[in-house]
């Protein structure tokens, strides 16, 4: 079975070739080489000329995908009283404080994102060593520590994704599913790329965007032309 997968992967590599594609063409090619029997998740990998070991070259934030992520996001909200009621009405999957904290401490993670009201952060902060490594710790910079829990829930469920450059300066960002039209994937990609360009650390030196690749869960990467910075969903001349 592994040999068969290897042959499919090799065939996909040959179809992709050595070319660097405009965004729309890259997603059309990605859909062409996708052969998995499930709806693959599509990610974009931005290799950036930054040294994330330096405090002034960090890159992290969130961006809303215009066509959604295609992923069902389960949201947990640490809140009490009126905020808890609002969170439940807004569609939060889990709402609570002590009970929710106990579940996390017991290793139960029945959610993909967490939101907390500011008054709960004194308690939630104790879970930092558990939630932090999983990327689930509420963070005011990411809009997940807020009194407007309804807005946060709506954005998380509607296609807001996080981007963060790792220690190698690569930001891996979810941008949709293979079943999306190539145009919709290109539009999502454009929203992310615009944000990454906008948030370029002022201390970054040299070439900022070194290379970009898009791929499905089971596909090789398709190189994207980083010089294309607008009209992402249009065919290149």
Automatic annotation (TrEMBL):
<dbReference type="GO" id="GO:0006412">
    <property type="term" value="P:translation"/>
</dbReference>
<keyword id="KW-0810">Translation regulation</keyword>
<dbReference type="InterPro" id="IPR023673">
    <property type="entry name" value="Ribosomal_uL1_CS"/>
</dbReference>
<dbReference type="InterPro" id="IPR016095">
    <property type="entry name" value="Ribosomal_uL1_3-a/b-sand"/>
</dbReference>
<comment type="function">
    <text>Binds directly to 23S rRNA. The L1 stalk is quite mobile in the ribosome, and is involved in E site tRNA release.</text>
</comment>
<protein>
    <recommendedName>
        <fullName>Large ribosomal subunit protein uL1</fullName>
    </recommendedName>
</protein>
<comment type="subunit">
    <text>Part of the 50S ribosomal subunit.</text>
</comment>
<keyword id="KW-0699">rRNA-binding</keyword>
<keyword id="KW-0820">tRNA-binding</keyword>
<dbReference type="GO" id="GO:0015934">
    <property type="term" value="C:large ribosomal subunit"/>
</dbReference>
<dbReference type="InterPro" id="IPR002143">
    <property type="entry name" value="Ribosomal_uL1"/>
</dbReference>
<dbReference type="InterPro" id="IPR028364">
    <property type="entry name" value="Ribosomal_uL1/biogenesis"/>
</dbReference>
<dbReference type="GO" id="GO:0003735">
    <property type="term" value="F:structural constituent of ribosome"/>
</dbReference>
<dbReference type="Pfam" id="PF00687">
    <property type="entry name" value="Ribosomal_L1"/>
</dbReference>
<keyword id="KW-0687">Ribonucleoprotein</keyword>
<keyword id="KW-0694">RNA-binding</keyword>
<dbReference type="GO" id="GO:0019843">
    <property type="term" value="F:rRNA binding"/>
</dbReference>
<dbReference type="InterPro" id="IPR023674">
    <property type="entry name" value="Ribosomal_uL1-like"/>
</dbReference>
<dbReference type="GO" id="GO:0006417">
    <property type="term" value="P:regulation of translation"/>
</dbReference>
<keyword id="KW-0678">Repressor</keyword>
<comment type="function">
    <text>Protein L1 is also a translational repressor protein, it controls the translation of the L11 operon by binding to its mRNA.</text>
</comment>
<comment type="similarity">
    <text>Belongs to the universal ribosomal protein uL1 family.</text>
</comment>
<dbReference type="GO" id="GO:0000049">
    <property type="term" value="F:tRNA binding"/>
</dbReference>
<dbReference type="InterPro" id="IPR005878">
    <property type="entry name" value="Ribosom_uL1_bac-type"/>
</dbReference>
<keyword id="KW-0689">Ribosomal protein</keyword>
């Amino acid at each position: 079975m592994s040999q068969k997968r290897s042959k499919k992967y090799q065939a996909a590599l040959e179809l992709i070739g050595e070319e660097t594609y405009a965004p729309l063409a890259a997603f059309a090619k990605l859909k062409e080489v996708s052969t998995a029997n499930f709806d693959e998740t599509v990610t974009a990998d931005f290799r950036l000329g930054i040294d994330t070991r330096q405090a002034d070259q960090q890159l992290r934030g969130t961006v809303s995908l215009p066509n959604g992520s295609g992923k069902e996001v389960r949201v947990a909200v640490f809140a009490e009283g009126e905020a808890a009621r609002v969170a439940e009405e807004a569609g939060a999957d889990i709402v609570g404080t002590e009970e929710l904290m106990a579940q996390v401490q017991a290793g139960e993670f029945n959610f993909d994102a967490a939101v907390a009201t500011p008054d709960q952060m004194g308690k939630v902060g104790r879970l930092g060593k558990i939630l932090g490594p999983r990327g689930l710790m509420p963070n005011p910079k990411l809009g997940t520590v807020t009194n407007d829990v309804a807005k946060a829930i709506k954005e998380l469920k509607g296609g807001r994704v996080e981007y963060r450059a790792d220690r190698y300066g690569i930001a891996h960002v979810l941008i949709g599913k293979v079943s999306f039209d190539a145009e919709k994937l290109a539009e999502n990609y454009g929203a992310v790329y615009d944000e990454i360009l906008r948030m370029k650390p002022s201390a970054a030196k040299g070439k900022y965007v070194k290379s970009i690749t898009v791929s499905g869960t089971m596909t090789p990467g398709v190189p994207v032309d980083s010089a294309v910075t607008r009209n992402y969903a249009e065919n290149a001349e």
